[in-house]
Design brief:
The longest helix is centred in the N-terminal third of the chain and has 21 residues, at 62-82. The protein has 18 helices and 40 strands. The protein is 25% helix and 28% strand. Strands 4, 5, 6, 13, 14, 15, 16, 17 and 18 form a 9-stranded mixed beta sheet that branches. A 6-stranded mixed beta sheet has the order 8-2-1-12-20-19, sandwiched between helices. It is an alpha+beta fold. The structure holds flavin-adenine dinucleotide (FAD). Flavin-adenine dinucleotide binds next to helix 1, strand 13, strand 18 and helix 8.
Amino acid sequence: MTESIPTQSQIVIIGGGIVGCSTAYHLAKLGWTDVVLLERKELGSGTTWAAAGLIAQLRQNQEMSNLARYATQLYSELEAETGVATGWIKTGAIGVCQTDDRRREWLRAAARARAYGIEMHEISLQEAEALCPLMSSNGLVSAFYLPDDGQTDPVGTTQALAKGARMQGVRIFENVPVLDIKLEQGRIAGVVTEHGDIACEYVINCAGMWSRAIGNWINASLPLHAAEHMHAITTPIKGLKKGFPCIRDFDGYTYFKEESGGILFGGFEPKAKAWGMKGIPSQFKFTELQEDWDQFEIFMECGFDRFPCLEEAEIRHLQVVPESFTPDNAFMLGEIPGIKNFFTACGMNSVGIASAAGAGRAISQWIDRGYPQEQLWPLDVRRFSPWQRNSSYLAERVTESVGMLYEHHYPNKQRTTARPVICSPVHDRLRDRGAVFSQIAGWERADWFASEGIEPVHRYSWGRPNWFPYQEQEHLAMRDNVGLYDLSSMGKFLIEGSDAGQVLQQLCANNLDMPVGNVVYTPILNERGGYESDLTVSRIAENQYFMVTAVGTTVRDFDYLRRRFPESARVHITDVTHGHSLLALMGPKSRELLSKLTDADLSNEAFPFSTAQQIDIGYARAWALRMTYVGELGWEIYLPTMFTLPVFDRIMEVGESFGLKPVGMQAVNSLRLETGYRHWESDITPDDTPYEAGLGFAVKLDKGDFVGREALIRQKEEGLKKKMVMFTLDDPEPLLLGNEPIFRDGQHVGELSSGAYGFKLGRAVGMGYLKNPEGVTNDWIKAGRYQLEVEGSFCDATMHLRSPYDPKNERTKM
Ligand SMILES: Cc1cc2nc3c(=O)[nH]c(=O)nc-3n(C[C@H](O)[C@H](O)[C@H](O)COP(=O)(O)OP(=O)(O)OC[C@H]3O[C@@H](n4cnc5c(N)ncnc54)[C@H](O)[C@@H]3O)c2cc1C
């Protein structure tokens, strides 16, 4: 180190892998040049140097695909800008399918790709062989071609990014490990190194597999774990086409690319090996782990099938290097909950080379603007709960995470490792009634109920899965009779204080200036008028509000609200999720049933829709909210957790004579879709406004100022460019799962944001945004003829401006 490190810098980046260097490069491009990057050893010496350098653009969702797409552009231009070769080559890629099910998955993927602007189409096996001579199509049923995928040299690209950053003033120091992070009143104040401290405003943790330990220094949760990751490289093979398209054989878990005239191959095995349980050795630098040919065997087998020339080839090297993986196989971006100005971009799940360009750009824009420029929720670090940094949980889950990339991505695919984590008080009662559980944010929730004699397991399919008939029974029980579901997992906050009402009124788009005992559904918007959250708020006392949000967004919503509370305001928020369970009793007979359990007057006059009361139920005292997410008469019953079991037993006992049915999450989802209720994350996001989402009823422009109001007023004046509508398929057979492209008079105008089977309607139902740069009016919408693309086929669909089931929402008010 020739230059001495400064005592002060606006931003300190920890980690000089490709992600840290890309972040430095993009910050500088945005004019943030008072940036110091500290690398404990040498640039790229962690995991980056070991990568195969493949850039696959199509990822599991649009957000990740957008970031990966940008890499193909940046890496092809960087050499001209910096003079450092990146080694970028546009080779194209071919995904091959060994089974019809995989082909069905890829047909859906190809439709997604087109929607994201990525070229991908099915080709014949002869065409595949012509594009990649020496590849065998034996045993294949289909192949898909992505001509714009490519590969880059990870080390060269990292150096080019670092050079680009330096050229604009960023200072990069190697051999300077960060030893600690300093906080002052919950915000970043500096970092500690053995060469001295650096005072700073922001820290960005880009430390790859070291990131979790770094987070732990200041009690920040970054759930990632390292696993052994490997590929082999052969000596040159005669007849191999130079720069042949990368071959991805998901069914064989293996990818193949050309490397110095030979084949480099490796992949994503279904049961991987966790690594680094006792920490990462301090000397780790360009380190390789012990070869493990047994672990590699699965790739060898596929290798011999796909490239018979491998039988004769000599393997020059088997390279095993640790890489970090997260519990859901998506990386982590954003500002860490609870700490001001502590950002991260880490946990790259073996797509860090492909994603670094986009991740660096996204995190820089986030810091620059104060919020992400593009929708990033699937990658947002706030999707994880604090407990998820638990090392046993991570070490077990990582053995499954590695394989998630190439596994069969069936709808509703569940994880099998590290379960159970969080169980509701009635978990065992539900299990005894046949519940088959799904997991979200660690919570075990009844997904559907197997009838007696039916094996309680998920059997996945692109067609109707094994739970379809049981979901139907639960769905119809709720519509025609009465059902009960346990949603104790919902996030619950208590917001109190003499300024609570005023503060919430400023944050929420609906009117919260309401009498005690009222409940309201409200959007929480950003300055652009987009949905940061949607939730229900009950005023339970003069200065007390009870807020309920989805389990997956609990951490995010809590953090968002707390950050937005003015420092001087007398308001306090407590997460009371684990102190309260939620049993939802819904359906036309719910009033009659609940009346047998309480002496409270449940009539419309005494207990109208959108109100809350404390009632006796069994021997407990509960908050009952007359709200619904399934479009029927019903009550959400919030109980102190320890009262839940006896109350549940009592409800089930009394419910027997009513034919009360326990209901799982699959049915709740199909019920909410049939009724047209939106789901934050799929249907409404920070990029969608309530007017676009068809939820203008929940916005009260005339109540006074609130976050997002100005943007909404502007949008009202200017008109909409997209609008959410609903569809039912005319043919009752096909299924809608979400992401299906929407065609209006043969023109592609959007995609479904979600879809399910509407059992009451007797056909698949979905919702999605119609987009038109010229403007979207109801007349324009009604004038179109619609089709949805389902697995490559065009299905006629009926468009609905309002929900096709109970369009006037009358059943909730019965
Ligand atoms: C065998 C293999 C093949 C792969 N193939 C591909 C591929 O084809 N395509 C693809 O996209 N990805 C691939 N990857 C994954 C890719 O290599 C990683 O996702 C990526 O390199 C992660 O980059 P990073 O910057 O997050 O981490 P790293 O490269 O590990 O960088 C983190 C840096 O932080 C430094 N650091 C840690 N602690 C401190 C501290 N306290 N102070 C200062 N510095 C610190 C470390 O020394 C390290 O250099 C592959 C990985 C492996 C192992």
